[in-house]
Amino acid sequence: MDFKMLSPLTLAYMGDAVLDQFVRGHIILKYQSKPNRLHQEAKRFVSAKSQAQTLEALLADDWFTESELAIVKRGRNAKSHTKAKNTDIQTYRKSSGLEAIIGYLHLTQDEGRIIELLNEIVKRVEERC
């Protein structure tokens, strides 16, 4: 299957789940705390605002390959038929772009690159906070 042909919002849907699972594993190992604290920590990584900031930083550093950047842009430019909760539309679109590339790398089973990206996201969020 050519995963580039999937809707960018479908890729973002998958990417959201992959990022959430990775972050949960990270914070469980790091904090070994009660679920409420874990949830508060997870929000730092998976909120639309955090994802948008991380994407902006990755783009500024030319972190993505040319083909990955095309997926990011498709995700960012996709028109969603649902209203963004708790954020403005530009922030929501940027977060969708980051989630889309995560979803794409996961579905294509590019394990080395997906782990590299997820670790980079965690690193950059922790440096910001």
Automatic annotation (TrEMBL):
Query: Which Gene Ontology terms cover its molecular function?
Result: ribonuclease III activity; rRNA binding
InterPro entries membership: Mini3_fam, RNase_III_dom, RNase_III_sf
What biological-process terms (Gene Ontology) are attached?
rRNA processing
What are the annotated GO cellular component locations? cytoplasm
Keyword annotations from UniProtKB, A to Z? Cytoplasm, Endonuclease, Hydrolase, Magnesium, Nuclease, Ribosome biogenesis, RNA-binding, rRNA processing, rRNA-binding
Cofactors demanded by this protein: Mg(2+)
- State one Pfam family annotation: Ribonuclease_3
EC number per UniProt: 3.1.26.-
Location in the cell reads:
Cytoplasm
Q: What class of enzyme is it?
A: hydrolase
- What residues form the catalytic site here? 16
Similarity comment: family membership? Belongs to the MrnC RNase family.
Q: What is this protein called?
A: Mini-ribonuclease 3
Organism of origin: Staphylococcus rostri
Q: What is the lineage of its organism?
A: Bacteria, Bacillati, Bacillota, Bacilli, Bacillales
Supply the gene name.
mrnC
